[in-house]
Amino acid sequence: MTAPRTTPATAPAYPLRLGDDALIAAQRLLQWCARAPQLEEDVALANICLDLLGQARALLTHAGELEGRGRNEDTLAFLRTEQEFTHVQLVELDNGDFAVSMAKLLFFTTYQELLYGRLAASTDPALAALAAKAVKESAYHTGHAAAWTVRLGDGTQESHHRMQHAVDTIWPYTHALFTPDALDRAAAANGTGIDPATLRPLWHERITRTLKEATLTVPDDGWAPGGGRQGIHTEAFGYLLTEMQALHRAHPGARW
Amino acid sequence: MTAPTGPTAPTGTDGRDAARLREALATVHDPEIRVLTIEELGILRQVDITPDGRAHITITPTYLGCPAMDTIRADIRAAARAAGYPQATIDTTWSPPWTTRWIGAAARDKLRAAGIAPPAPAPPPGPAPPPGARLLPLAATAPRCPLCGAADTTELTRFGSTACKALWRCGTCGEPFDHVKEH
Fold it and tell me: Coiled coil located at which positions (chain A) (predicted)?
């Protein structure tokens, strides 16, 4: 007797970690709002934040529905503790100077664009639909970050120096994006998710192309901090999370 | 609307009722691009009347984080109420993903008349892109100035006044203008 073919179930923790990546990246990038070097840049970064937040809302909502314990996007974003967030540390790191923010954006959104491109073929129809939508948004984000990387890297001696420093500083944190754990492997095996290690060759190729155009040096691989996926975060995250959750925790159930 | 993947024909227990409701909802304007309706933008996907006579409407967002969605839902609800359906349910779908290819020729003319450069038309089908290639080319062709028609235009910023627009400037008449990004 053969068992009927069923669509493999998505583990709620899988969309949750992807949603956490987008949510915390949006929250951190938002700190540039009203502080960017030009008005156009302010609008651009706010636009990118809005896209990332839209992705986060969709992913967290999906995770809550899969979990079936009544948690929605708000309870997941505002009522979890620091250790319950499973985003990579890269997205929570301080913005630093503008070059650091652009290096973070370039590395992270290039990963997202490749991930969503593949996830559009997920066996989970909800994940496939939102990935097919998000991949087009990510393409604009990577284009923006790459343009700044080239402008700063191939700019003045000072901007070149600072862009190279930013790339070198952030590079170690990119490894965690591509380090699969048991959840990633299980999601890839049943077709709902992607093994992130398979994304790195193309990511490396694209990043190398941009850094070369920017007259920058691709850093050597070495130190590779991790732990974000297991809820281990840097000191910077506690401050960010406290600010993000303060209103909701002070006024439970508050609405606009 | 000539795109084969555009909004589908109304269905339901009574196709005529659904068609009438759809006509009513098709007059709802997009809150951010006021010259176009949600029908012309391709946001309105499906209008059904359930067997118990309630309106069931499906819409799709242009961008996942589009902040206009709540306003659009409220406007649809009001239009449905005015058309005799006080208890409309509104579903949001992401599939098939919204694309500017759904914006038809007449809607593109309306955009131009309002001083907004429409997105470039869909490229003709060609050979399959290599693996890892972008799904959409970014700013493949420069839009013509919607105000004077000149081709000499420059992108000022790819992220404009709303998620779906970029800001450009005409080199001939010197005026800045919005451009609905290809998506």
Answer: none
**Six-digit token pair at A107?**
């590395």
Peptide bond between residue B97 and the one before it cis (omega within 30 degrees of 0): no
Residue B109 lies in a domain: no
Tell me the mean pLDDT per 10 residues along chain B, length 183. 43 72 94 94 94 93 90 96 94 91 94 94 64 51 92 90 90 95 87
Every domain of chain A and the residues it spans: 13-220+232-250
Q: State how many domains chain B has.
A: 2
**Rounded to an integer, what distance in angstroms lies between the CA atom of residue A250 and that of residue B164?**
35
List pLDDT tens digits, range A64-90: 999 999 999 999 999 999 999 999 999
Rg (chain B; Cα; Å):
18
The phi, psi pair for B47, rounded to 5°, reads -130, 120
Query: Which residues does B81 contact at the CB level (< 8 Å), separation at least 6?
Result: B88
CB A197 within 8 A of CB A204: no
What is the C-alpha radius of gyration for chain A, rounded to an integer number of angstroms?
A: 18
In a domain, B97, yes or no: no
- Taking an 8 Å cut-off on Cβ atoms, the answer to whether A50 and B67 are in contact is yes
The DSSP bridge pattern shows strands B176-180 and B116-117 to be parallel
CATH 3.40.50.300 is held by the domain A13-220+232-250? no
With CA atoms as reference, report the closest residue to A104 among A139, A150, A154, A149. A149
Contacts of B94 in chain A (CB under 8 A): 58, 129-130, 132-133
Choose the closest CB to A143 out of B67, B132, B158.
B158
Q: What percent of chain A has pLDDT over 70?
A: 97
d(CA A50, CA B63): 9
| Residue B73 forms part of a structural domain | yes
Best A133, A137, A142, A206 residue to mutate vs chain B (most B CBs within 10 Å): A133
Q: Which residues of B touch A55 (CB under 8 A)?
A: 64-65
Q: How far is CA A168 from the centre of its chain?
A: 19
What is the domain-level CATH number for residue B43? 3.30.300.130
Burial of A95 (0-12, 13-18, 19+ CB in 10 A): middle
Q: Is there a domain that residue B145 lies in? A: yes
Residues of B in contact with A117 (CB under 8 A): 132, 135
Query: Which residue range(s) make up the domain with B78?
Result: 11-92
Is residue B59 within 8 Å of B44, Cβ to Cβ? yes
